[in-house]
């Protein structure tokens, strides 16, 4: 049955007036069973293998880079070199001049880097990937929309206090803004998110975003080790950057002196109140007995 279908397909391909050459064969094979399509797999298209933009990112609102996939060169298609072109709007209308990527090297493989000379914050950009003159992917954005800061640095912590029972402790976590983020002059206003968990846990506990570079973390268990990490984003923007390196917080068991003080102090107070209560009761008993004798 498959041989008959193959002969019929080849006959139709030879007599077709609507298509010519490989285009006719491809059109007919696309309607044929899978067993027939496998005869000429090179005619099948696979759009998922085409280069695609993966991310455009600006770490400090002064430069940005765009990255793309390059799986096509490992697939079945034979496309030419991938090139990136960009245009930006300097007036009310888009300029029709497309310029090629100024730097294919600085941001790594399959990327284009725009230094401060090519970066304008509020002017919209359009970029496109081309191969052999054909556009394979494109996107538009403003630099302010793609800001993702570098990770915060220099994380450290200090102990604030320990509970009377010696079971829990509070700490203060501090860090510094990324070095390339100009927060002193207000060019960037960063919002931070701290997450923490016990070392053997899988789910991170997330704290509310803050604008300061320090935050207290309460009710951590002593004799446990915790992991703490922080990430940041530009205020009023939804694009968080990468997390910082993990800060490890170890809370050792408190000393015996501290534990004895925590636990024995309430007992001492109870003993004092007990003695005072017994004294009052004895005084009342003696006073009542004295009153009976007088009567």
From TrEMBL:
The chain crosses the membrane at residues 264-287. Its main location: membrane. InterPro entries: FN3_dom, FN3_sf, Growth/epo_recpt_lig-bind, Ig-like_fold, Long_hematopoietin_rcpt_CS. Keywords: Cell membrane, Disulfide bond, Endocytosis, Glycoprotein, Membrane, Phosphoprotein, Receptor, Secreted, Signal, Transmembrane, Transmembrane helix. SUPFAM superfamilies: Fibronectin type III. Pfam families: EpoR_lig-bind, fn3. One of its GO terms (molecular function) is cytokine receptor activity. The keyword Secreted applies. Belongs to the type I cytokine receptor family. Type 1 subfamily. This is Growth hormone receptor. It comes from Gorilla gorilla gorilla (Western lowland gorilla). The gene is GHR.
């Amino acid at each position: 049955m498959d041989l008959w279908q193959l002969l019929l397909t080849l006959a139709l391909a030879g007599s077709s007036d609507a298509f010519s050459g490989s285009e006719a064969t491809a059109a007919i094979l696309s309607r044929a069973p899978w067993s027939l399509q496998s005869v000429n797999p090179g005619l099948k298209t696979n759009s998922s293998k085409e280069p695609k933009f993966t991310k455009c990112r600006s770490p400090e609102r002064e430069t940005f880079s765009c990255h793309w996939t390059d799986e096509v060169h490992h697939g079945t298609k034979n496309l030419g070199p991938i090139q990136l072109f960009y245009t930006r709007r300097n007036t009310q209308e888009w300029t029709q001049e497309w310029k090629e990527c100024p730097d294919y090297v600085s941001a790594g493989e399959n990327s284009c880097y725009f230094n401060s000379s090519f970066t304008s914050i509020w002017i919209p950009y359009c970029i496109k990937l081309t191969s052999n003159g054909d556009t394979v992917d494109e996107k538009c954005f403003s630099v302010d929309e793609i800001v993702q800061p570098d990770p915060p640095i220099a994380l450290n912590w200090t102990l604030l206090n320990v509970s009377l029972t010696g079971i829990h402790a509070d700490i203060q976590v501090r860090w510094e803004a990324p070095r390339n983020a100009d927060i002193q002059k207000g060019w960037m206003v960063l919002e931070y998110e701290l997450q923490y968990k016990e070392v053997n846990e899988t789910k991170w506990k997330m704290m509310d975003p803050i604008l300061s570079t320090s935050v207290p973390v309460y009710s951590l268990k002593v004799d446990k080790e915790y992991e703490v990490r922080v990430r940041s984003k530009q205020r009023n923007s939804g694009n968080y950057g990468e997390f910082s390196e993990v800060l490890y917080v170890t809370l050792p068991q408190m000393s015996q002196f501290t534990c004895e003080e925590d636990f024995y102090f309430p007992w001492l107070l109870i003993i004092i109140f007990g003695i005072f209560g017994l004294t009052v009761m004895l005084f009342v008993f003696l006073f009542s007995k004295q009153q009976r004798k007088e009567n």
